[in-house]
């Protein structure tokens, strides 16, 4: 996702779908964000790939929204989240994960019944949560942001096959946060990554 605009004359909540993927993306890649302790984040950014001690068998959550990542990591101030990474991955991998994902919660409008959801959740290699998007001040917006959890084969593929580049965007996060704290929201907003609707098509199995 890229710049997530707060409600305004042309971007009010009525114009933004409740569930929509917004991301920084190219014809071949999409950027997602994660935050790690420096011992993992710095080697990943240095080498452009996740180090061997990155746990490939554990579920990992990626976020296409820069501002949601800032909300999650407290502008890179929370313990073990001091290094924020922008991970560029292939659209092929991202869309495969979306196709095979299951909602992390039961939704009557999506699942035949709770038992069917539990079965799907147990076997799916990816999970999706839709959490309130955040504005520049990290306050919740009336529409949702995608969080994508990858486990098993998809976690390993993310680290070793889908990743195209890894950048340390901690300095950017701190610069934006500093401008906000200094009372310069316009300058802070100008530095946000550009995020636009991602052309994923209908995702009825994910409530979108």
Structure, described:
The chain contains seven helices and nine strands, in the order E-E-H-E-H-E-H-E-H-E-E-H-E-H-H-E. It has 208 residues and is of the alpha+beta class. Strands 3-7-6-5 form a four-stranded mixed β-sheet. It starts with 21 loop residues before the first strand and ends in an 11-residue tail after the last strand. The model is unreliable at 1-13 (pLDDT under 50).
Q: Provide a count of the helices.
A: 7
Q: Mean pLDDT, rounded to whole units?
A: 92
Report helical residue fraction. Answer: 25-40%
Number of strands: 9
Query: Termini separation (Å)?
Result: 16 Å
The structural class is alpha+beta
List the uncertain runs: 1-13
| Order of the strands making up the biggest sheet | 3-7-6-5
Radius of gyration: 17 Å
Which term fits the overall shape?
globular
How do the SSEs run, as a string of H and E? EEHEHEHEHEEHEHHE
Largest β sheet strand count, sense and barrel closure: 4 strands, mixed
Strand content range: 25-35%
Name the features:
disordered N terminus; 3-stranded antiparallel beta sheet; 4-stranded mixed beta sheet; 7 helices; about 25% strand; about 210 residues; alpha+beta
What order do the helices and strands come in, and which of them pair?
Elements: E1 22-23, E2 29-36, H1 38-47, E3 60-62, H2 66-73, E4 83-90, H3 91-99, E5 101-103, H4 114-123, E6 126-134, E7 140-150, H5 152-162, E8 163-168, H6 170-181, H7 185-190, E9 196-197
Parallel strand pairs: 5-6
Antiparallel strand pairs: 1-9, 2-4, 3-7, 4-8, 6-7
Helix pairs in contact: 3-5
């Amino acid at each position: 996702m890229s710049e997530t605009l707060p409600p305004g004359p042309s971007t009010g909540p009525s114009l933004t779908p409740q569930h929509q993927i917004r991301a920084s993306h190219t014809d071949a890649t999409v950027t997602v964000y994660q935050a790690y302790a420096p011992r993992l984040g710095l080697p990943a950014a240095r080498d452009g790939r996740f180090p061997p001690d990155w746990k490939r068998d554990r579920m990992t959550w990626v976020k296409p929204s820069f501002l949601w990542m800032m909300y999650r990591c407290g502008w890179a101030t929370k313990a073990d989240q001091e290094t924020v990474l922008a991970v560029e991955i292939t659209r092929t991998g991202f869309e495969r994960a979306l196709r095979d994902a299951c909602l992390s919660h039961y939704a009557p409008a999506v699942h035949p019944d709770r038992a069917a959801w539990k079965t799907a959740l147990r076997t799916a290699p990816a999970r999706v949560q839709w959490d309130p998007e955040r504005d520049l001040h990290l306050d919740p917006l009336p529409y949702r942001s995608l969080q994508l959890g990858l486990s098993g084969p998809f976690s390993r593929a993310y680290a070793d096959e889908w990743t195209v580049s890894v950048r340390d965007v901690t300095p950017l996060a701190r610069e934006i946060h500093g401008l906000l704290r200094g009372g310069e929201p316009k300058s802070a907003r100008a530095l946000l990554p550009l995020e636009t609707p991602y052309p994923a098509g209908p995702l009825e199995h994910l409530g979108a």
